[in-house]
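Homework help board

Subject: predicted structure for assignment chain

Our instructor gave us this sequence and asked us to write out the predicted structure in token form, then describe one feature. I got the tokens but I'm not sure how to describe them. Can anyone check?
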Amino acid sequence: MQLKILANDGMDKSAVDALVAEGHLVDTTHYDGEALVEQLRDSDVVVIRSATKIRKDLIDQVKGSRLKLMIRAGVGIDNIDHIYAEENGFTVRNTPNSSSAAVAELAIGHMFTLARFIHISNVTMRNGEWNKNKYNGIELAGKTLGLIGMGRISYEVAIRAKALGMKVVYTNRRGKLAEYSEFEYLPMDELLPVADFISLHIPFDKNVGATLKKAQFELMKDGVYIINTARGGVVDEADLLEALNSGKVAGAGIDVFVEEPTKNIELVSHPKVSATPHIGASTGEAQERIGDETIAVIKGHFQL
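My token output:
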């Protein structure tokens, strides 16, 4: 059985080579608009990352066509209207096991960067400034890390933070979880006042909106650090900027934004912000694992 696979946001070369070697057709061109609709109708599988959004209007245009399987090559599936897609006969899958370590390491990296002013000293030293006495940082050991959401990625963050000597607490919409008993569960309103660092690991729900906004910032410690490698929108960007300017938030590590590419230059250029362009899963190792897991999903679905 030969499949036509549209990898609209690209795919790791080793995965492409493996699929082609088995006789499948793989298109890694990025399509938009009507061209995307045409390609989807003529493909068995579509694989997307973060750039492509598959919403109800697009699903309506391709239902009843050749397309059967939609794969989000990553942890979340919030850029696919997956419930609607499944109601209309499509199978929707993701690759939840592949990029957890990569995203966790980036979250920890942002914590180090903010704690020791690595982000801003890289800028000021290139401007000829020697601000040795200005960058009096903090150590992560002994600090409390509060995780909002507890799953694969946040667990990877937790075990790394614990190894660094941090106390880890978490909150979760499902409540206390037996599989993470080594870490302390706290309700959100109890976690926010005790955490020195807060790292988010939750999907964005457009019906709920931002999880962290003005009311939540008011509950936090003065000088808290916010890390968001989850999804744009889970932190209200305007309220975060206000908290940074007031000093309530000492620093923010941000990998995801409401709009991508972001136009919020005031936020990303803020001296208290360490910003990266949605690179959580952008390691060679993670992309290779994502490719392998994507192949496994395809083979499992079509019983190859």
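Reply (TA_rk): Your tokens look well-formed. For the description, you could write something like this. Residues 4-98+283-302 form a domain with the Rossmann fold fold (CATH 3.40.50.720). That's the kind of observation they're looking for.
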